[in-house]
Design brief:
By secondary structure, the chain is α+β, with helices and mostly antiparallel strands. 31% of the residues lie in helices and 24% in strands. The protein has helices at 2-9, 12-19, 25-32, 111-120, 122-134, 181-193, 207-218, 225-231, 241-250, 262-266; strands at 36-38, 43-47, 54-60, 63-66, 72-76, 81-82, 97-100, 105-110, 154-164, 253-261, 272-276, 280-287, 292-295. It is elongated and about 60 Å long. GO terms for molecular function: ATP binding; kinase activity; peptidase activity.
Length: 300
Amino acid sequence: MAQDISAQLVSLEQFNNTLGYSLSREEFQHCLQQVKFINPKVGKFWQGTDAQPGIYIAIAGKVRLLDSADELIATLEAGDSFGEFTLFKEGDFKAYAARASVNLQLCFVPAEILWPLMAKYPQIREHLWAKARSRNPQQVDSDNTPVLPSDSKRLHETKILSTPAVKPREKKISKAYFPNSTQRVGHLLQRVIRRYPFFAQQSGSDCGAACLVMVSRYWGKNFSVNRLRDIANVDRNGSSLRGLSAAAESIGFSTRPVKASLDQLAKQKLPAIAHCEGKHYIVVYEITPKHVIVADPAIG
């Protein structure tokens, strides 16, 4: 009976999406015998520094992940997960904390379930490792080397958003996004006539959300600025780099904070959102030896 109730709270599809691999129904039922369901009170309820190894899957409500300075890393909703880094002590990941919203319900999958599955199915280990790294954007490896500013032409810019995320997948329906042929032709035409999407900010604190609207439209996605403002936790001072990055990832983009000179930024995949003038954001669409095309949500 308890197993039937558990199956109603977390589905096989949710479980497989969390693992990045399609388990059989028998394997899923076996896992359900050991999972735990939690309804934490509103507020900070979990510290990754001393947490039991395992993964939390959000069943209902929202949970916000915070770094050691209480800065927002990401806002998670039903179907999202966190805690993957606790499975990889060798990864030397930076721990984060979790804050519960109203009516948050979680499914906790302990490491005792996950470690045997990771050993049996390497795809699961690779997927969970990638998820753990995605919460640690400051980690550096050969595939994610930060671009350092040069002594000349230095810009106080941070590249936040580049291209839609392409996540590794194995026997599952992925949310990864690929531009279709029509959009690729459209991008080429935009470069020829130099006309790119523009969205004006609605208030002095909306520049980050407005930039995210523009980049989304470039890739054929349409999102409400109000929704993006909420996801990025915009207040009267605007959005933080971490908040904007979390918002971008939550709608399917990959993010990589990079401090770069103009020369180095030109080598990156554009468009990108650049942080400049203290708390302002603009979109950099194109950089050539003779000109730079940007969209400033404050002035056009």
